[in-house]
């Protein structure tokens, strides 16, 4: 389920309050015969606030669509039509066990384990944030923590740690 991030929700609520308050004030000013200059300024505030709300809602909709697309892509990748041969499945299982064990030895938290797997699967930090419904900044911090615990310099070294001697 998609949750609207708190920052965006607060922004939308504040802008909605501005629209309502300015709209009520505008209606009151019109009924009392306020000068045209004041009416135009208030109308601009209402229009800008409504445009900002629409822009935020469109951005949130786009984000929700990206999340859905990434989840579907991940499911599709996990349910590939061509079944790998038995030896490939066995090698994957062994590698998965090794990765899980190494994550445990490094002392990764549950969130770091999730991020670590998604990094190994090749997702970008932005994609991981979307899939996990977290901020990209949070994912970046978790990735940095993983690299530090693993004693590697970054994403490529992290992935290479598991496959360098295999190739």
Question: How much of the residues is beta strand, in percent?
Answer: under 5%
CATH topology of the largest domain: Arc Repressor Mutant, subunit A
Shape: elongated
- The helix-strand sequence is HHHHHHH
The whole-number mean of residue pLDDT values reads 89
**Gap between N and C termini:** 40 Å
Using DSSP, what is the number of strands?
0
What is this structure's SSE topology?
Layout: H1 6-31, H2 36-78, H3 86-106, H4 110-120, H5 125-132, H6 136-150, H7 155-163
Helix pairs in contact: 1-2, 4-6, 5-6
Short description:
This protein has helices spanning 6-31, 36-78, 86-106, 110-120, 125-132, 136-150, 155-163.
Describe this structure in words.
The protein is mostly helical and 167 residues long. It folds into two domains: 6-78; 86-163, Winged helix-like DNA-binding domain superfamily/Winged helix DNA-binding domain (Arc Repressor Mutant, subunit A, Orthogonal Bundle), CATH 1.10.10. The protein has helices at residues 6-31, 36-78, 86-106, 110-120, 125-132, 136-150, 155-163. Helix 4 crosses helix 6.
Which keywords apply here?
mainly alpha; 167 residues; 2 domains
């Amino acid at each position: 389920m998609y949750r609207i991030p708190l920052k965006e929700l607060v922004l939308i609520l504040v802008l909605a309050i501005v629209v309502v308050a300015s709209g009520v004030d505008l209606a009151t000013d019109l009924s009392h015969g306020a000068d045209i200059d004041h009416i135009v300024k208030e109308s601009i505030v209402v229009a800008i606030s409504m445009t900002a709300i629409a822009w935020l809602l469109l951005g949130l909709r786009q984000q929700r669509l990206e999340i859905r697309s990434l989840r579907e892509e991940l499911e599709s990748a996990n349910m590939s039509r061509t079944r790998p041969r038995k030896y490939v499945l066995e090698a994957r299982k062994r590698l998965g066990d090794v990765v899980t064990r190494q994550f445990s030895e490094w002392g990764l938290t549950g969130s770091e384990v999730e991020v670590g797997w998604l990094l190994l699967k090749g997702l970008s930090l932005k994609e991981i944030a979307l899939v996990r419904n977290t901020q990209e900044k949070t994912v970046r911090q978790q990735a940095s923590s993983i690299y530090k615990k693993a004693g590697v310099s970054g994403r490529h070294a992290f992935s290479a740690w598991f496959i360098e001697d295999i190739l």
